[in-house]
Amino acid sequence: MKRKTGFTLIEMLVSMVILVMAFALITMLYVRASRIRTQIIAGSEVQGVLTQMVQAIGIGQRNDPLKNLSSATKIYNHPKYTTPTTIQTLLMRASNALIFGNLNESMVQYYLIAPGLDSGSPKTTGSDITLWYAEGAYSPDPATTMTWHSLDVNKRVYLSSGSAFTFYDIRMKFPNMKDPPDAADSETTFVKIHLAAISADPSMKNMAPVIFETTVRARNKLSF
Prior knowledge:
By secondary structure, the protein is an alpha+beta fold.
């Protein structure tokens, strides 16, 4: 009797099941690896944008050495409004606004954490939070006298809640431990910049925020 060569139907079905399972496993691993790679790239991009923002404040992004926080000889207080509107409410908050200047430079530097990245101008509400910059002579109402520009010109990241400025004295403590100082407090010397952000890419909306934090010492003329 001749022995049959070839595969039975059951053997072929088993082989097909094994191939399908192997293909599914390879596909799952590829998708997972691709997702991890995308998250790493997005995280690196967010870190790069935050680094540029902090550098713009701390050491300046222009050639003028007087327009950065490390050269500031005065940190201004936050404007007070009897009937604040729009971004004026944010300028009143020390955690949202950083205003400083150098006595040898007529222009004052304004930095503001506020929504409005998608629309191109600061807003009071929204999740499209970014870091805004404006420059001009010190004004009691900079909200209406100056033009604000986002430091994220390519609209790549959204700042998360918790992004803030914090002011400290020379001992790295609040002059009044019960109430944080206003930026114009005579003892305020250090500014902590805390930025947290995620990618503006909709597919990355669930990514964990990337955090960048640093402390910059202004050149206040203080007695030690």
